[in-house]
Amino acid sequence: MRTNSLAFRLFITTTAWVLVVLPLAGWLIYTSYRDEAITSFDNRIAFFLTVVVTDADEQLESAPNVPNNWGEGLFEITHSGWYWQITPLDGQQAPVLRSPSLSVDSLPLPSANHVSPNEKEVRWANLTGPAEQVLRVAEQFYMFGEGRAGRYSVAVAGKLSEVEETIAAFRAQLIQALALAGLGLLAVTIFQIRFGLLPLTRVEKGLAGIRSGEAARLEGELPVEIKPLQQELNALLKSNEEIVERARTHVGNLAHALKTPLAVLINEARNDTSPLARKVMEQADVMTGQVNLYLDRARMAARIGVIGRVTDVRPVGESIVRALERIHQDKRLEFTIDCPAGTRFQGERHDLEEMLGNLLDNASKWAHGRVDFVAAPITQHLNGKTGDWLEIRVDDDGPGLSPEQLAQPVVRGRRLDETKPGSGLGLSIVADLAYCYNGRFELAPSGLGGLSARLTLPRAV
Description:
Layout: H1 6-56, E1 83-88, E2 97-98, E3 122-128, E4 134-144, E5 150-159, H2 160-196, H3 198-211, H4 227-270, H5 275-304, E6 311-312, H6 313-327, E7 334-338, E8 344-345, H7 349-366, E9 370-382, E10 385-396, H8 403-407, H9 426-436, E11 440-445, E12 451-458
Parallel strand pairs: 7-9
Antiparallel strand pairs: 1-2, 1-5, 3-4, 4-5, 6-8, 9-10, 10-12, 11-12
Helix pairs in contact: 1-2, 4-5, 6-7, 7-9
C-alpha cells in the first residue's frame, strides 16, 4: 500500500481512530466500572456495619451484645477476609468482641492510623490485617450501655482482593473485547477500502486499455460519484481525436495552398535564363524542401498525438522482409528476425512501417549476404525519462561507413554514400519520426562487419 494512495490515507485514518478512540473509550468504561465496583463494595461493608451496630445495640444493659449470625457465613470462617470487631474506648474495662473469622487476631482500625471520619462519621481505610490480607475497613464510634455512656469502636472489614479481582477480570475482558473490535474494524476498513475503491481499479484498467489501443473509450457502469469523471474523460478523448483530425485537414490544405504557387514559380523560372529566374528557382526549391519537411513533421505530430495507437512489431517486420526478399532475390540475402511475441510499439503502424522499411531497404542495398532484424523491450533513461522502450536494430554485413561518415548527422536529402541510388530522404525520415516519438536514432558499426542502425522508440506495455 503506497503512502500517497487514497487506500493508505483511509487505512491510516481508521488506524489512528482505533488507536486513540478505543483506548480512550476503554479507559472511560473501565474507570466507570471500577468506581462502581468500589462503591458497591463499600456499600456492602457499610451495610454490614449497620447490621453489626443494630444487633449489638439490642436489649442492652451495660455493654454491647454479641451480634447474631445474620446469614453471612463468611464471618464464621477463619481468615475468610470478612471480619467485624467491637472495641471499648476511653479505658473501659470491657472485652473486645470479634467475629469468629478473626480467631485470636485483631482488626487494624482506621482511628489508630489517624484517619478522619467522613460526613457520616465513618472512617474508611485500606489496611493490612490477619494473614497479610489487605482489607477495606469501615469504623464507626457508637455509644452503648444504659445512658449511652460507653463509647465503642465498631469496625467491619472486607478483603479488598475480592473487588480487585473482579475489576481485574473485567479489565481483561474489556481489553479483549476492544482489541477484537479494533481488529474487526480494521479488517472491515480494509474490505471497505478494497470494495469502495474497486471502481477506480476498473478506471485504471480502462485507461490502460485506451493507451494500449484495446479500447477507444472508457466503458462500463461506474458509481455516480465517478460517472462525471468517465464522461469528462470520454469527452476529452473525443475532443483529442477531433483536434487531430482538424490538424490533418489543415495540414493537407496548407500543403495544397503552398505547393501550387511554388510549382508555378518554379515552372516560370525554369523557362527564363536570367540570373533573377535562377535565384527564384533556387529559393523556390529551398522553400519546397522546407515546406515538405515541416508538413511531414506536422503529419507525424498529428498521428503521434492520438491516444491508443499500438502496433505489433513482428508482423510489420516480417511483411517488409518478405517484400525485400522478392526485390533482392538475385542477391540471395539471408534475413533473420529476432523479435519476441507481444513486442509492441506505442504508435502508428504506418510510422513503424516507414521506419522499418527505410532501415531494412537501406541494409538490403548494401548487404553482401545477411541482414539481421532485432527488436527487444528495454528499460532505460532516455530524454530525461526512465521508462519502457523498444530497441530495434538492423545490422548488415556490407561495407559499412567510415568513422568520419558515422560522425556526420543525418540530414534530409544528404546521402552518406553516393555510390547507391536514392534521394537521401530515408534515414532522415527515420530520424524525424524517432524524434517526434521522443525516441532516438543512431548509426554504429555492426558486429556483422557492416552498418548497425539502432532505433529506440516508446514501447506499449
